[in-house]
Please model this.
Amino acid sequence: MIRVALPAHLRTLAQVDGEVEIAIDGLVTQRAVLDALESRYPVLRGAIRDAGTGQRRAFVRFFACEQDLSHEAPDDPLPEEVAQGKEPYLIVGAMAGG
Amino acid sequence: MTGVRVLVGTRKGAFVLTSDGKRKEWQISQPLFGGWEIYHVAGSPADPDRLYASQTSGWFGQQIQRSDDGGKTWQPVGHDFSYQGETGTHQWFDGTPRPWEFKRVWHLEPSAADPDLVYAGVEDAALFRSADGGQSWRELPGLRTHGSGPSWQPGAGGMCLHTLILDPAHEGRMYAAISAAGVFRSDDEGQTWQPINHGLKSEGIPDPDAEVGHCVHRIAMHPDHPDRLFMQKHWDVMRSDDAGRNWQEVSGNLPTDFGFPIGIHAHEPETVYVVPITSDSLHYPPDGKLRVFRSRTGGNEWEPLTRGLPQRDCYVNVLRDAMAVDSLEECGLYFGTTGGQVYASADAGETWQAIARDLPAVLSVEVQTLP
Model:
């Protein structure tokens, strides 16, 4: 299972506490994880990626294993630790605003 | 028992303020949707327990929330606001063409007859309609694709459709106001639109009396006189007596005719309220005095209403969607400030009290008169 950590506002929207566990068939990529997440929680469609273009929203970041994956290709495989469920895939609201 | 429910949208959440018909003692809810910008909360005239809220965030985009129990519980509904067909371009601040891009919902306008029918005015300016209680939204593209669209420019607050009025007397007629394009009218339920800005003069645009390009801040209609409209423009308070075909200035003796909201007394269609603001570059009241001005003559002759409002050292603003009137026998008025105060008057503006003092900056105020 892939462990996904959502920021507080998106946990409230999705009505979940703590991490979300997502099952992925096949290659574990950012696109696959986000597609599965949005499929399970339709309220998150458009909140992480633009619903029309699929592009990451400007003030959302993707981290894992102490790396910023925000600018990586969405179909690249995620780190093995994430694919094995040892490390979470972090969806983060960027530090901005007031 | 008769009472009122005031729906307040702020920069950091929504609040519901409730009182009985006396409107002296108030209860303030806990924050709803805390941390999110709530541009507007609106109740259905057909079912006062049906509420809609526009919840938006620079981080996470747009949500629409719906309550079926008067605001006790909420559920997210549809939030796909995709423009129909070719997106086209409008003008950017520097005059270059820029594609329409959805940013947020500014205003929700529920139907008077059907709780499931609701309209949304959005930025970049367009009109959407939902007939299933907000579960799905579809654009009425005739407004955005009006021939003048490529010449529309954003105001400082964005290119927003901020006011929508559904005419209660003429079937299919509705009015939309856009900053900074002007006022438009449809007579066929939003399918086609015509600009109705004749008589407006705006010094900030190359052609002061152009057909479009005016920064209209708010329009208001009394349901008993649907052909009479009042407008707070960027500068100038205006009036139309022919359903928007012609406008006349009625700023009269106002200390400044810049401002954002405009409201009409529930039982006196010629009694109008504005909150004068110093200027387009000084968004606070003149002389540090927060004053509502009332005209009982449909404009031109205005009197300040000050009792209970701060008359020194006050430098807040009152935004365009942040004033409302109730329909109790003695009409109540409400407005919210960028300083987080909500003021109420239970006597048509004669006296005021702060019913909330320390909320986040107020974006919108609506009131429901409850049976």
Chain B has one domain: 36-334. The radius of gyration of chain B is 19 Å. Chain B touches chain A at residues 35-36, 57-63, 76, 79-80, 82 (CB under 8 Å).
